Records
---
Amino acid sequence: MDRDRDDRDEGRRRRTAERAAAALWNGDRASQGLGMRIEASGPGGATVSMRVRPDMVNGHGICHGGLVFALADSAFAFACNSYGDNTVAAGAAIEFLRPAREGDVLTAVAAERWRAGRAGIYEIEVRNQQGELVALFRGRSHQIAGRLIDD
């Protein structure tokens, strides 16, 4: 009996996360304009990908760090909004570990590490198509007034 209830609760949380991601995506012209795609979303987590286009390469011939940050930040946003509450970034930091190049497909996987009250901590790994770690991002979220979706 408890297992059935747990399965129903997990299904409800997953549907909430998917609806929240769709609602957030609908207004997210920045992520859309950069060619990002939501690969997966769930309670406290999200996976977002982006191909490095020629217009994303800097003077060193590598992907501009701000665009790697933008990808990680978008995954962070979908993860911390996955409960349906309006949630924004309160702070973030990134460590660049290896360059990304034109044509690379970068995937950012966000995972909730801690959440209490109106705050949360999320860690995001950005990897290339070979699975090599490109960047590590850590974001701190803050819940603001209102809901992203209706229950």
---
Amino acid sequence: MNAVKIISYIAAAIFIFFGVMFIYATFSPQGQIGWLVVGLVSVVIGFGLIWFASTRKPIAAGSGEDVTLKIDLPANVELDTLKCNSCGGVLKPENIKMVAGAPVVTCPYCGTTYQLTEEPKW
């Protein structure tokens, strides 16, 4: 359960509690009709928050949203062809996908899947 749902449920409980208290106080000897209105509005807001929290869908990883990663390379960069570590087949950019924030490549020739790592240049 995410933080928005938890906060919504807590706020709903507070609104409903005080709304019921205002409604109950309306029928006391010193009660006023305005308290009934405040109580009903508070209860409606509380149930509205419960409805909001229960119908809100969390954003899940891999939910079909595309992520674009832009890389700023220094000048004089030479690109080598990317080859599969298992079979040596040439890989294309279409074979690389981001999975949990890491670039993962799937070889179209041998079917091997592995995470791309960058070795230090020094």
---
Amino acid sequence: MDNRFKRKMTLGQDGNTLVLLLAILGTVFCLFIFLRVGFYLSGIPLEQYRENIFSWFTLPADLGTLAKRPWTLITYMFMHDGVWHMLGNVIWIWVFGYILQDLTGPSKIIPLFLYGGVAGGILFLISYNVFPGLRLNMPLTTVEGASAGAMAIAIATTVLAPGYRIFPMINGGIPLWVITLIYIIVDVAMISSSNSGGHIAHIGGALMGYVFVLQLRKGNDWSAPINKFFYWISNLFNPDKKNWKKTAKRDFHYSVKGTEPYKKIPNITQKRIDDILDKINQQGYRYLTEEEKDILKRAADDDA
């Protein structure tokens, strides 16, 4: 029940990293939109806002400019200069992120988004510095937006559960892989359009999402290092977290030596067994907790 409650899409819910990611994107967008409006109301040309403020956080194709602004490989994925661009990315992240969080828990969303954004940015840089057709526009080309991270989340979700159906009112639902395939085809077809850099970055994010799931199935959780880093940062200035192991033993006001710890034995219900079997089917047996493995063993012994 606790896990289900944490998966609900309630703003501010503890453990809901999807809502946290969307809140960060929305906050950054509002901040820069207010700056833009301030330039406009002050009579300052918007080109100066773009050149003197906004461009310092978007990813440039020119490697010389990138050397002066290395942080843009991270910041570009949080930048949106248009409402529809922002809204489109938010919808994609919301839809696929909700499914992914439901399948894998909340710890994969933000690391996968960051990995996808970095992979998309790197492929964008490589393409504009290698292909002659793109190098012509390299000095003035930049890329921005959360699309690469959104694509990584979309591909990872599709690889994990390709048969997951959305819009059930339409002939029983549309399989997830159909929607993702259409999105990829449109992206590839539009590389020759005016937003070539953005679509190339999408492909980089898609490749990262696919590799991320392959590694996850092999037992390599690439989200762990980033989550550990965030945990370390969040507790860096929290003295209570540093000393919790030391103070726990002092909280006992009676002798606990030789006392057997309390052991919770969960009830076995058919629904509980079905949920565990679904988890095995989607993620594999190795992702079961010790409690879930014990339930399966007890159920097998009862049937025997």
---
Amino acid sequence: MLSVSLMCFGSLMIAATPTYASIGIYAPISLATARIIQGLSLGGEYGTSATYLTEMADQRHRGFYSSFQYVTLIGGQICALLVLLVLQKVFLTNDEIRAWGWRIPFFIGALLALIALVMRRTLHETSAFEAARQVVKRTSSLRALMKYPREVLLVVGLTAGGTAAFYTYTTYMQKFLKLSVGLTDDQTTVVTLSALVFGMILQPIYGGISDHIGRKWLLIAFGVCGVLFTIPILTTLQNVKGPLPAFLLIAAAWMIVSGYTSINAVVKAELFPTNIRAIGVGLPYALTVSIFGGTTDSVALGFKSLGHESWFYYYLTGMIGISLVVYLFMRDTKADSAMHRHE
């Protein structure tokens, strides 16, 4: 409830922040504060939503149900792009969007967060949580988490490469298509939107596959294919002409990345016992995403400014390779799950 409230407040702050011309240095300070609030709220939300989705699912379909976390995450990005398309094509010129229209999606986001807040009030706790509350002695979550250093490091390792790849093909890809591929604003928006829809459809398919073959093999497939094909995909994408081949290449990348995104929530949830599952998933994940996911744009644009854009391709491949090592040596959480270790 608190995390959704903070999301609403952060979006509203961004929408209402005066310009630099009006309040000077306080404008970027307010914007940075709002982004920090949003980041903290997302960090608090991820662990609890991953835990809730995993605990509410029956044992045979955990991968399928938990994959909907990234369905909704990608769906949010699709909604944002649809709002941008409608504003571009129906209501505002590009100059108007840059001047003040960019605030509209943040007002919409603040209103949607209020709706989510109302929905949260009707949710019930999972049976796993209720059972754990009966048998587990209450203690400090952080103190309890210190007893599971191996699992914490596993979350960091299995997240690093996957989150860097995810942010590459979502937030950074819009900049890449415009600055490096040379697509127009409209082409960039359409290609990004189409690729996100394709990626969203893949999530429950891959999640269902993991329920049959296990989580580990899907993660290994992501790691191996990511190491082998990241450089060829991005190098070819940089040199294509036109939106269709660009879409096909990004779609191919999504077929690789979905091996991570579709099941990363359930894998992390299955590592920890019930009493510390939410913080065990959320804290190391949030720190790892901040370091390796949130910096993706900066690293890529930094290499580009140096005139060595291709160095980013090797950086991303290396990050996926590090995670691949973790995938190879970690246990398959479907076969050896901690979901019922409160009993």
